[in-house]
Amino acid sequence: MSGDNSKTIAKLNDDFRASIRPGQHFYMTQGINALPAETKLEIIGLVQTFNNFTPDNDPYGEHDFGAFDAKGERIFWKIDYYDKTMQHGSEDPADPEQTTRVLTVMLANEY
């Protein structure tokens, strides 16, 4: 992936995460859903504002994965890219016209 595409993808991913709302392709695993409501809200806020990207957790500069600790739990979040039919991977994640982003938040031990 070229540097320009990576920057475009990172911006699209950051905007997507920051605007999480019902009706989007946003999923929480069973482990996250089992947590108290206030903990889930805190985790969602931490996903939305995550900016601790390093070469280790973001080797392609796309801002598509993050990990942090909350309430004694290790949390992972991941953005995947699908085509608009949700049947296949997106051919160009830098093109929002042909890409559906899906954000999943999980406990690290569910990965």
Notable characteristics:
4-stranded mixed beta sheet; single chain; about 25% strand
Identify low-pLDDT runs: none
Strand content: 15-25%
What's the story with the biggest beta sheet?
Answer: 4 strands, mixed
Distance between the termini: 25 Å
Order of helices and strands: HEHHEEE
Total beta strand runs: 4
| Number of continuous helical runs | 3
Q: Name the structural class.
A: alpha+beta
Inertia-based shape: globular
- Going across the biggest sheet, name each strand in turn: 1-4-3-2
Mean pLDDT equals 94
Radius of gyration: 14 Å
Oligomer classification: single chain
What can you see in these coordinates?
- This protein has 111 residues and is an alpha+beta fold.
- The relative contact order is 0.23.
- The protein is built from three helices and four strands.
- The chain has a four-stranded mixed β-sheet with strand order 1-4-3-2.
- The chain is globular and about 35 Å long.
- It has helices spanning 3-18, 30-33, 37-49, and strands at 26-28, 65-70, 73-82, 100-107.
- The model has no long low-confidence stretch (mean pLDDT 94).
